[in-house]
Amino acid sequence: MMAHLLLVLIGLGGGIAVGSGFVAFLTVLDVIPRLAQFSRAQRFVHGFEGAIISGALFCTWVDFSGISLHAPTWLAGVYGLFAGCFIGLLAAALTEVLNVLPILAKRVFMVDRILILLMALVLGKVFGSLFQWMVFEKTT
Description:
The protein contains six helices and no strands. The protein is mainly α. The chain has a domain at about 1-70. Helix 2 packs across helix 4. The chain is globular.
């Protein structure tokens, strides 16, 4: 009984930490207004905010409810495309706000090879995502 209570507390604490970090990321860095400005859609800022909140709540509900969709395989590709666009836009907004890549290139002594660094980051993300999707998802 105590082990289950400890797991509940650890899960709750982890969820609060991740949620707080996500909210801090979105609010402190002004990511949503920056995304709207970057995509020239300033009039849809409230729609962006509502979509992110609705998506987070819906996906959390689906995850906890155990609903299983028996959809065609190509639909996973469409979902992956949209999820990748979302993550890419968030990364672009963060890079725009913090000017991350030049700082990273300077720290790892690759200022003259910033294109190689950028391609390594992109290809690492793509191959890591594909590996997880193709290897780990099939085992569950």
